[in-house]
Design brief:
Number of helices: 4
CATH architecture: 3-Layer(aba) Sandwich
Number of domains: 1
Strand content: 15-25%
Shape: flat
CATH superfamily: Response regulator
CATH topology: Rossmann fold
CATH class: Alpha Beta
Distance between the termini: 19 Å
Radius of gyration: 15 Å
């Protein structure tokens, strides 16, 4: 919260906007096996001006992040085949998708 306030005070982020919206458009990879939840997340992120790609499995997420690292990775913990935690560990062990922030 302090980062957001500081950036807003310095004129870098309009008040009420997220720090992620500093760039005109972030590439966000959402990994969620429940289609309804994934579409809801996509709706709000796209509405905020971000580019969103949806995937339904952990193994797909690892491959996609290694091909082209997203700016942000949103992971469900309980995914088929490979859990979100395993995805996070695999990507952290791989030096290629550096700079990606992850959340679960």
């Amino acid at each position: 919260m302090q980062v957001k306030r500081l950036a807003a005070a310095q004129g870098r982020v309009p008040a009420g906007r997220s720090v992620l919206s500093l760039r005109s458009m972030s590439r966000i990879l959402v990994v969620e096996d429940d289609r309804d939840i994934a579409e809801l997340i996509r709706h709000y992120l796209e509405r905020a001006g971000h580019g969103v790609e949806l995937l339904a499995s952990g193994s797909e997420a690892v491959l996609r992040a290694r091909e082209q690292a997203p700016d942000v990775l949103i992971l469900d913990l309980m995914l088929p085949g490979m859990s979100g935690l395993e995805v996070c560990r695999a990507l952290r062990a791989d030096p290629r998708p550096r700079g990606c922030r992850s959340s679960w």
